[in-house]
Amino acid sequence: MQIKWLYDLLALDEWKNFSRAAEVRSVTQSALSRRIRSLEDWVGVELVDRSTYPVQLTTAGVAFCKEGREAMAGLMKLRSALRDAERMPGRSIQITAGHSLSMTFLPKWLSKFQAHSDQFNARVVAANIHDAVVALEEGSCDLMITYHHPQAPILLDPAYFRSLTLGHETFMPVSAPAADGRPKYQLPGRSSAPVPYLAYTASTFLGKVVDTLIAGTGVPVALERCYEADMAMLLMRMAVEGYGIAWLPQSAVQEELSRGRLIQVGGSTWSTELEIRSYSAVQNDNPTMRGLWEALESFQNAVHQ
Asked: How far apart are CA 200 and CA 223, in angstroms?
């Protein structure tokens, strides 16, 4: 049995709906259904009554959820105690951040934040958004820092997870310059001469943002995928070498823009704003994390007054 199967069943028990439970668990509805079937196969009985709406658990499912919650609470308590013994010395937190943010935003933000608050040690793990969400849900990190966009939201239950905005930045298409100083590639391209497109892999958050952005322009676009990667920094290197157009966060390309090795393509139609968000579990019992969150809330309140 996989622990995530139990969390899937608990989400279904709470929301009584496969679609909503799948959103909360950050998986497709078909994937959630397969995983619950796998759990039922492991247990050996049906746990979900699929003939009812809203969805109800069977008697066995109710009993399994009750025991599962208690078992997971005990395991999480034990894991927390074991991890506390392995934490960095002194006041410390575990941070999971998106790949790009861990290299661009996070170092500067930590430096600026700690200059105006109590010092703490940090262990940082770079991850894609799916793995970052799993780490937060399973208690593997105290703080998750990722991008947010309204067209590709991260669905975490606010009863269990809280969030704060840390900043914003532009997400823009860029190209290497041509010999005349203008962008080597221009949008929207033509069917007879499609623009070489340095794309994110289909499952990535930023890839979904690009897809919704392009669809929202209402402008016919001709792009030809010539390279795919799941990390913005890899696409940035390919763009610098002149292989095509890539959509990248401004913080990732600021230095290349200032040096003239990359140029923003198109106007505001082709760009959008990304929100930088921090997330933490409501029940996180790390005193350093609790102090950090209170400081973040105070800072955010001061900014909006």
From this structure: 13
SS3 assignment, position 302: helix
Is 305 a residue whose pLDDT tops 60? no
What pairs with residue 248 in β-bridges?
Answer: 172
Return d(Cα 213, Cα 248) in angstroms, integer: 13
Say how many CA atoms lie within 13 Å of 129 toward its Cβ.
26
Q: What is the CATH number of the domain that holds 68?
A: 1.10.10.10
Q: Hey, what are 65's tokens?
A: 């959820």
Model confidence over 181-229: pLDDT tens digits? 999 999 999 999 999 999 998 778 899 999 999 999 989 999 999 999 9
Residue 288: domain span: 88-167+276-303
> Cα separation of 269 and 256, whole Å?
22
Given 33, 51, 84, the domain boundary residue is 84
pLDDT one-digit tens code per residue, 111-154? 887 776 677 888 898 988 888 888 888 788 899 999 999 988 88
